[in-house]
Amino acid sequence: MYFTTIDYFIVFVYLIGIAVFGILSSGKQRNTKDYFLGSKKIPWWAVCFSIVATETSTLTFISIPGLAYITNLGFLQLAFGYIIGRIIIAYIFIPKYYKGDFETAYHFLGNRFGEPMRKYASVTFIILRIFADGVRLFTTAIPVKFITGWSYFECILLIGAITLIYSYIGGVKAVIWTDVLQMFIYTFAAIASIYLIYQMLPNGFQDVISLGWEKGKFKIVDLEFKSFREFFTGPYNLIGGLVGGAFLSMASHGTDQLLVQRLLTCKNTKESQKAVIGSGIFVLFQFAIFLFIGALLFVLYKGQDFSTMSIGDYVLAKSDEIFPKFIIENHPSGLSGIVVAGLLSASMSTLASAFNSLASSTVFDLFKKKIQKYPGKELLFSRIATLFWGIVIIGTGLLFQDEKNPAVDFALKIQSLIYGGLLGVFLMGILYKKSKLKDALISYTVSIIILVLLFILPQFKIMPALNLTWFTLFGVVISLITGYITGLFKTK
Questions:
Q1: Within 13 A of 368's CA, how many CA atoms are on the CB side?
Q2: In angstroms, rounded to a whole number, what is the distance separating the alpha carbons of residues 352 and 186?
Q3: Cβ distance 361 to 126 under 8 Å?
Q4: What count of Cα atoms within 13 Å lies in the side-chain half-sphere of residue 153?
Q5: What does the alpha-carbon distance between residue 260 and residue 178 come to, in Å, rounded to a whole number?
Q6: How many angstroms separate the CA atoms of 429 and 111, rounded?
Q7: Are 42 and 266 in contact (CB under 8 A)?
Q8: How many CB atoms sit inside 10 A of residue 302's CB?
Q9: Contact, 426 vs 255, CB < 8 A?
Q10: 3-state class (DSSP) for residue 311
Q11: Which pLDDT score, from 0 to 100, does residue 303 have?
């Protein structure tokens, strides 16, 4: 069943309603602390749910089911590693952030190594975040394209524009409270989809066993070791998932302003610690739900190659489009509108987080001293920065219209290009007491250069593609080794 008038009405009303809700929940804003940090009065459970929605809404809803359709449930190994990483963040990074009353994730680097390192980290964060969230924006446009028949170009402009309106006005409070509401909406929609898929199976659980189980679609743990090369380039494995996932989570939740900004809105250290650890548990739960959807879709479509599937006259071009196909063709009238509205709203809230975090890093890390020369204008400059980065990300999202890889994998690899080096510099600042600005700058740069080569060279078939679970760990090792070596050559 395709979208009906009722579905279109639900999507329209819901998008307008969630934007209004976000603006109203923002309250009165007087300065940058209100706009970017929520006056540090956001309850930990709201921050926890906001983190979950921010990091999983877009890519989880669309790409994770598609990933499971063409592989299995092995991605969960990464989610277990996420929990380990967040526990480390909670007890090593967060106390230092609150002890220093930091404004951004890179404030620590400024205090430890000097302002040049803070600005360097902030600029690289901004550049890589633009591309990563460009992928997210494009992924969000997929179901809208199927519903309306518009081009990806038109869908991206529509989604980006509506998102920019309430993120520009409402600040981080609007983003967080909107996330809280949307997390429950799209989780409900996902569970409802599982029920519908199961009901459509002719023989119910027997079909799941006979096709899904026999084809290994429900396999979670991979302990196989075929070769040293495949260990780093092949499918997700347990060691890579736990170790790589832990380091990826340490980097994202300990050094990425998109998520660290949320942790800094809590009242104190303990509240922030509960938020980050709790988010890891909820993320594992959500990954399991959406991976299970992909496995059930594989059973429902009898393992059909997605390239032979279609929606009307449109032939699917990527695995990311499998779940949207099911939503549009099989959800009953009304529920289909709710599911897509929840998806879009949650995804747009994630984009709003990106707009707000990029603006906060720009204002606090790059131009704080210049902005302070204009008393009473800080809030205005903050909103201008939000508007600017919103427009930039919308433009960047248009670059990924022909990307054939699962978007979740592509986006995480883009982010990992700086995650490893950034986490390495943070750890260097904690572990290497004698490290100086020179050591931090060189080690971070070397790490980024090597990881960029590991990302680009496989595109030209020069070397096999490295599994994303290892990108961050490799970056940390490269950064720490380089920092240690440069530290041996002390200058007077």
A1: 15
A2: 17
A3: yes
A4: 0
A5: 18
A6: 10
A7: yes
A8: 8
A9: yes
A10: strand
A11: 85
Distance, in Å, from the CA atom of 46 to the CA atom of 52, rounded to the nearest integer, reads 10
* CATH of segment(s) 5-404: 1.20.1730.10
Question: Where is 482: in which H helix or E strand?
Answer: helix 471-487
Closest residue by Cα to residue 346 from 143, 154, 70, 196: 143
- Which amino acid type is present at position 363? V
The residue extents of the domains of the chain are: 5-404
- Tell me the two tokens of residue 200: 């459509």
Token pair of 434 as six digits = 């004698």
**pLDDT tens across 44-102, in order?**
999 999 998 888 766 678 788 988 999 889 889 989 999 999 999 999 899 988 887 77
User: Phi and psi for 315 in degrees, rounded to 5?
Assistant: -90, 130
Burial class (CB in 10 A: 0-12, 13-18, 19+), 443: buried
Instruction: Please enumerate in sequence order all residues whose Cβ is within 8 A of that of 238, keeping only pairs 6 or more positions apart, or say none.
Output: 77, 221, 222, 223
In angstroms, the CA 286 to CA 291 distance is 8
Q: Which residues contact 11 (CB under 8 A, 6 or more apart)?
A: 147, 337, 340, 341, 344
List, in sequence order, every residue forming a beta bridge with 311; answer none if it has no partner: 314
3-state secondary structure of 310: strand
- Picking from 58, 71, 268, the residue whose alpha carbon sits closest to that of residue 163 is 58
- Label residue 265 left, alpha or beta by phi (over 0 means left) and psi (-120 to 50 means alpha): alpha
Q: Report how far residue 260's alpha carbon sits from residue 47's, in angstroms, rounded to the nearest whole number.
A: 11
Our CA angle for 43, 45, 50, nearest 5°, is 100
- Whole-angstrom distance, CA of residue 63 vs CA of residue 324: 10
The per-residue pLDDT for range 394-405, each reduced to its tens digit, is 888 887 665 554
336 Cβ partners below 8 Å, 6+ apart? Answer: 1, 3, 4, 7, 327, 328
H/E segment holding residue 340: helix 335-361
- Tell me if residue 74 falls in helix, strand or coil: coil
CA atoms within 13 A on the CB side of 3: 22
Residue 446: alpha-carbon gap to chain centroid: 25
What pTM did the predictor assign?
Answer: 0.85
